[in-house]
Give the backbone structure.
Amino acid sequence: MAEKKVTRQEDYATWYNDLVYKADLAEHSDVRGCMVIKPYGYAIWENMRDVLDAKFKETGHSNAYFPLFIPKSYLSKEAAHVDGFAKECAVVTHYRLKNAEDGSGVIVDPDAKLQEELIVRPTSETIIWNSYKNWIQSYRDLPILINQWANVVRWEMRTRLFLRTAEFLWQEGHTAHATKTEAIAEAEQMLDVYAEFAENYMAMPVLKGRKTASERFAGAEDTLCIEALMQDGKALQAGTSHFLGQNFAKAFEVKFADKEGKLDYVWATSWGVSTRLMGALIMTHSDDEGLVVPPALAPIQVVGVPIYRTEDELAQIDAKFQLLAQEFKAKGIRFKYDNDDNRRPGWKFAEYETKGVPVRLAMGPRDLENGKIEVARRDTKSKETLDFANLAVAIQALLQDIQQNLLQRAKDFRAANTHTIDTYDQFKIDIEKGGFFLAHWDGTPETEERVKQETKATIRCIPFDQAPEPGFCMVTGKPSVGRVVFAKAY
Amino acid sequence: MAEKKVTRQEDYATWYNDLVYKADLAEHSDVRGCMVIKPYGYAIWENMRDVLDAKFKETGHSNAYFPLFIPKSYLSKEAAHVDGFAKECAVVTHYRLKNAEDGSGVIVDPDAKLQEELIVRPTSETIIWNSYKNWIQSYRDLPILINQWANVVRWEMRTRLFLRTAEFLWQEGHTAHATKTEAIAEAEQMLDVYAEFAENYMAMPVLKGRKTASERFAGAEDTLCIEALMQDGKALQAGTSHFLGQNFAKAFEVKFADKEGKLDYVWATSWGVSTRLMGALIMTHSDDEGLVVPPALAPIQVVGVPIYRTEDELAQIDAKFQLLAQEFKAKGIRFKYDNDDNRRPGWKFAEYETKGVPVRLAMGPRDLENGKIEVARRDTKSKETLDFANLAVAIQALLQDIQQNLLQRAKDFRAANTHTIDTYDQFKIDIEKGGFFLAHWDGTPETEERVKQETKATIRCIPFDQAPEPGFCMVTGKPSVGRVVFAKAY
């Protein structure tokens, strides 16, 4: 509690890392690049997962599970895909250890070498399409609408908790369709699901758009994305939905007979969000005191802390809080009562502030006598005193208000940090301040690459929600059909 | 539908494998030993997982997530543990692929060799205790009650869908305690959770007991287990709960200061159930027509099938089923209405029978006129005609009855196939018929091993629920303090 906290202003990266540790969300493991997600962090992820899972099911998807291992040859079947993933994968080459003959410990048994190496899945298109091949014969077998919750591994060299780790948790949807139109509609639908989740649960506004060709998923014909703006002015790609065309169907020879019996390759999508969303959540709302969690995803929405000197006082306050707990439960409010006698109220206040619990209740003997309770909100740090009567209703309204306030604050921040810009000279100066920059681009990968080299900014997306506005590329002066969004990104 | 189904009598192993395929539960993947869990199979697993997860949380546990990879040296820190798991593990040795110089495809990049090999977790005691080391200083940090839902890999040479696969899904609880008594109580509590789940949800009676020393988990001081009896007379270990003593705390140097400041090693448990439970569920209840799923775990509890000739008839039946669907939903009954016009009723009847849907409703124009519906139950294959009035209530009661009946049937089967036996000669004959055999054993691993070598039967457990009964070992005639349970096992 007395520890000095590094502020966002002082050192954003350190602030982030410290916060993840202090709020007990996750920590680095001794295994290079892999994190341990601690119970409190995992509880937030579980809430995210449960909401998303329900949305996937509402839109007709089922969960399934495919193998962790992908034979090396499968990865190679789709040319762009292997280029994108071969450079950063964990390779299983043996299937046994044995005792070293010199007694020095266990060693890899050279006699247990696999004939074909297995890759720990970085994503599952190849292993899944290898199965779909056997599941699809005719249009009657389509669509296939499957999602998988799984761990994946990408051998990242520079890792940051939640944002970029060698192993991470995610969901990956993989669908198969009879027509191009249907597959595109699916990819768009799932992007909408993600955007709706980001706004209404994470209280995080996102831009919807498509990636440029050079930023596409390896193997996709079109990559749709949601992009959020973090408090340090950097963009974060929060979810992607890919229209894969017939690329994987061709790589794995997956054809179907239509109603007339004509054979054609199957159309595909894939879409995913990961534990990276935890990083986005943290960096959208948290402050120098610690985590701020939107009520919709908070494992603990309301915490109650008794203020007392004697055991008798505590007993009376306990009794009142037990009654309140029942009222909260009836309203579906996730409430925790912390009457741990080993910790002082001040310690608890600091603890739940660090952990981002949206509402804190405190009650002392005087409050109890007066039928009042102190209510502190985490987002604005304001306090008020409320009557016991109808407290649960008031708290419910307060939680909704906090949820709305967080979204509005994030929207305001984004609006204040979104700029329209027309000259490259000015862009090079302003981009250093962070934010989204709406600028004209000539549509060539060469210009995109030049901007990246010179400023480290990338095109985050070609946004959907934008009136057509012809203009001239800020770099080359060549014609442009509309503005794209540049930013530095995580 | 016209395919000949292999019966249990003809060939139990083929019956099982065919059933898993025909009921669309899972299939072998092209990756050696790894299965694909298909949506219908996964939906049953999800139901199991959700029930168990709620029970773990009710008993004070939280979920977390630890790395997939375990450094080879960690596995070696607990001597018995490495002996138990080194022989069957997937070893990651490299972290990159590259294009072969001869253009023949991608190969493992020899420059990307790991300094220390990583093992894909076969179980997570070592990686978790390596974390707990940093989490535990004093008694105030205890107990730690954590569970993880994860995939694990054990390189099994002979695999069978759900029962034994190289990769499987499971949960693993890992707890840390200040006292031996508390750790033992935890291990016992979780065994009770498993047993209660097996009986009340899977409708599968289980024997609770402890393993003999030679059957213990590698690294445990005591392994408690639940054992079920399959229809072919073989036993199946359905869940285990281990008292680990201070073995892992010693291996990873995890000490805590008690209230007096005295340092001691921490006490541990671990406990787990896996997708193997799917195999147990299938083999406890299913019959020659296909899967039988207890209502408590059925993804679809009730299916409705319209019988019609004209579109007009269908429209009327549809309307009635929509109303019934609302009534069912209000009662929390998982109902599916299948009015797919591409399939005939007979095909649907066979399909849902194969998939083990507990109750099938069929309604034709005449039924509609008479306000009646045909209700068929999967377990007994009996049919009755019920009135529309209060149908949801009647169906709810029927589902409960089916659940009870399945449990009773399994109990009766087990009772009929549990034998008390006193001579080894008779044992050698009777064991071939299958079943549980209660026999005296002298308590030595030598006798246990001899029985295994000569009959392939093992001691499944030393059962808890048994009056003390001194006697003489059926093999050696030496004294015995009570009977143990022998069986051939999966």
In short: Chain B touches chain A through 62 residues (CB under 8 Å).
